[in-house]
Predict the 3D structure of the following.
Amino acid sequence: MKIVILCLFVSALCWGQTDECRPSSLNIPGAPYPCVHPDRSVTFRVSAPDAQKVQVRLGGAHDMTKGSDGLWMATIPPQVVGFHYYSLVIDGATVADPATRTFFGSGWDNSGIEIPEPASDAAYYSAKDVPHGQVAQRWYYSKVTGKWRRCYVYTPSEYEAKSGGKYPVLYLLHGWGENEQGWHTQGHVDLIMDNLIAEKRAKPMIVVMDNLNAVAPGADASLYAARGIIAHASMAEVAPAGGRGAPAAAGRGGFPTNWGTVFTDMMFTDLVPMIERTYRVAPGRENRAMAGLSMGGMQSFLTVLGNLDKFAYLGGFSGSSGGRGGFDPKTSNNGVFADAAAFNKKMKVLFLGIGSVEGPGTKNFSEALTTAGVHNVYFESPGTAHDWLTWRRCLNDFAPRLFK
Amino acid sequence: MKIVILCLFVSALCWGQTDECRPSSLNIPGAPYPCVHPDRSVTFRVSAPDAQKVQVRLGGAHDMTKGSDGLWMATIPPQVVGFHYYSLVIDGATVADPATRTFFGSGWDNSGIEIPEPASDAAYYSAKDVPHGQVAQRWYYSKVTGKWRRCYVYTPSEYEAKSGGKYPVLYLLHGWGENEQGWHTQGHVDLIMDNLIAEKRAKPMIVVMDNLNAVAPGADASLYAARGIIAHASMAEVAPAGGRGAPAAAGRGGFPTNWGTVFTDMMFTDLVPMIERTYRVAPGRENRAMAGLSMGGMQSFLTVLGNLDKFAYLGGFSGSSGGRGGFDPKTSNNGVFADAAAFNKKMKVLFLGIGSVEGPGTKNFSEALTTAGVHNVYFESPGTAHDWLTWRRCLNDFAPRLFK
């Protein structure tokens, strides 16, 4: 309740005391809807003149009402600040809202809306008059998967300006149902890093954003399903003979036991060598970090805790290897935490971030680690949920701790 | 007719004589539909259990048929090879197909399908085992528009590998209703350039892809409308008081007379200086080229023909300043062609490309230029229309002619 009141107060200031409904920053150019009211309620609109029932799905499902002009509208209750995926349901068809840019989440290109924070809170991921790095799209061939893969690589402004110099690397992963585009579209990784580096809060570093989905040739595609890249309702069926073989069901649970090992293998066989061949990379484990959000956090824990000779920094943003109970410092993660002193010596930063409304699991895990003598940083993002604003804040807190 | 027969023959070879319907390469992972049959007919499918009428719009509108499972399907006639935008109409709502990745065209994120060519024809824009450059996303502030802008910059593989060396620059524009993402998503600019450079057919160069939309602060937003970035049906209305001010109508015709001058001003004031400050750019007009497709071709002609002191190469892909009749070499384009010998001395390559099914306008323009003594290259892409396969082929023919 306190949070809601604060939000109302701040947003009233921000909106200049009017009740103007502002178009979301993610709308296509010129689209007046969806728009966000000063109290963070949101009005949606879509043209569907012959439809019987239209809903907007953001959190729950909200019925829209048809006007005489064939335009359906709905105003939904105040939303948490940050980026949210949403979709429309038009006579049973789940589709993206044509009024917004789309974002790859839950395995398809659905709609996104940004519920704005006060400008001062959003400053760290806003474009400012500071030197700007770049995010590069790069294709490479993976021997492990037998396929061409795409990753995105952030290089800081000075990387090009200086012809020499070597840089440490952070490998940074998206979450379930997302892909390698998430961090530079939903996450604003480039603006966050540009601002941190300009303020000398973070060391200039390279950030590599890959796709956490990696399947060995011929492996069961259910691995993909478990990883959330076949999630849209239209897809959750058996493909016809000769089709690509979509599995019968897809869900967040029931990961195959080997779900992360192919990625780890691909990373060390294909990705890291390509990066170190292509960029001016500082050598050694103390110049290599890995982090990820949600399932990407789980992947990061799996990869790093099994390869402490290769990494000195590890971050889990709303996802790690613990927090679900059953953690035993002596045996969990193949006993990597059993000798806390040895672990602490190797791991320079073990970071656990979470949104305050996501539940106590990550905090419990952090406390269990601390009790076991394992040094770790616990970061809690106030008032945010399991979505991108939590993860932008995690990165903003994590990156300054690296490579010092 | 000859073309259709040839296509049938080649695709039968390509598909291994089966009647398998292959998922489009642009589908979201795991989606079996849309799929392309050996004869290049296409089957679409969408789940819309409560809809009364569903159509797919690709070229014309095609009715879909509802099955007992609530899935609507349609198989539409054989399509021309290449990339096509399409959309679904569900009870009157025009939306993207949730089964494909989306692509910004006609001013919104709609669906795309790739009707494959024989692999040998598509080789020049396919990923191969050659050195790969990168496409970088870069933010910069424009003094002319008073806004942050985003461009994408291709740098060849050797740009990073060598710490010295300066490179010529091609400025390359998208078309009406598209944006700065078009060339590296729909256009495969990086793969085309990687392959040309690896075969030593093109000189290593930097390619800058910006957004051709540029509006001065406070200028009438109808400029945006004319440029096709407010095109979706839901948007073509007057915004409510306090909204972003969408104009009453949007269309391809009726460009304001100053439609391209703000972009030109922005380019010389903001974009080119940023590029030349940031990258190792070879100096002078003989190291600078500009080209674009459709409206981007019109913009390129406007910018370059008015600034021959700054460019030595110009390309129009399905778009230029002529071809609509009324061309007079003595007076058109402010008389830049009046002294053909002087023009030929300055312009090292004037390139006019077009798809063979787009009509004779560009060929007529080329011939009128030739008759007037103006050297030019006419390139015709066989069997393709006003879409991205024509423009990939144009780039593949144009780039090897540059900076020699």
Observations:
- Chain B touches chain A through 80 residues (CB under 8 Å).
- Residues 1-17, 226-256 of chain B have pLDDT under 50 and may be disordered.
- The radius of gyration of chain B is 22 Å.
- Chain B is about 25% helix and 25% strand.
